[in-house]
Amino acid sequence: MKIILWLCLVMVMFVGGEAWAVTGAGAAALLEEGNYSMxxxxxxxxxxxxxxxxxxxxxSFSSGQYFFLISYGMLDSLMLETRFGVAELELKQDPFxxxxxxxxxxxxxxxxxxxxxxxxxxxxxxxxxxxSPKNIEIINQTVKPEATEWQFSADVSKEFGRxxxxxxxxxxxxxxxxxxxxxxxxxxxxxxxVTDVKYKQENELALVFxxxxxxxxxxxxxxxxxxxxxxTLMLKLTYIY
Length: 241
Prior knowledge:
The chain is mainly beta. It has a single domain, classed as Beta Barrel (Lipocalin). 6% of the residues lie in helices and 66% in strands. The protein has 1 helix and 12 strands, in the order αββββββββββββ. The protein has one helix at 2-15, and strands spanning 36-52, 58-75, 78-91, 96-115, 120-132, 136-138, 141-160, 163-179, 197-201, 205-216, 219-227, 231-240. Strands 1, 2, 3, 4, 5, 6, 7, 8, 9, 10, 11 and 12 form a 12-stranded antiparallel β-sheet that branches. A hairpin with a 2-residue loop joins β10 (205-216) and β11. The protein is elongated, with a radius of gyration of 19 Å. The relative contact order is 0.22.
């Protein structure tokens, strides 16, 4: 049964299209000290608003990211994570559509406060992501894309037996750079300048809701949605050792 569940999630990741957030529950996701887990995670966002750093250009982007995730419980109240995988990025209203490239990230989650008699926990999480696809050709130019994101979240979770539900706020900063790109209207025979196109996220705060379920011992299935900052959905499957 465990093998079947893993296969099902893999199929969802690769046929589900664009619609998937990395944070997960802060306190609810913590491991006990000395334990570690491995898993699969799918993270995507559709139509997240961004704005040009050195212009008034407003646009949006979609991205799908697929990770292998390793987590380790440093303390009962602190967990460290690393993830790596592949991602794609598409900027709308611009000539930038990047194929799958390497993506990696680091994160930490902490328990801030808990009330055991009520099965309530207050947690926080910090996530860093870096996406560096291959160089692409646009208007006879070779450009170097790169995207980075910082996320900070705070959430409250409550346990109901094997099910844990949570909700909270996420603050994120996204920067998308298109290096060495010169807009077509600026290209002349004498052009020697190099222009870097930069975008940043327009809305940094979002509401996050999610849940985790343990169908079998040490197997965790999780899902999460994010509101007011594009359409997002996260799916994750982990096994605790």
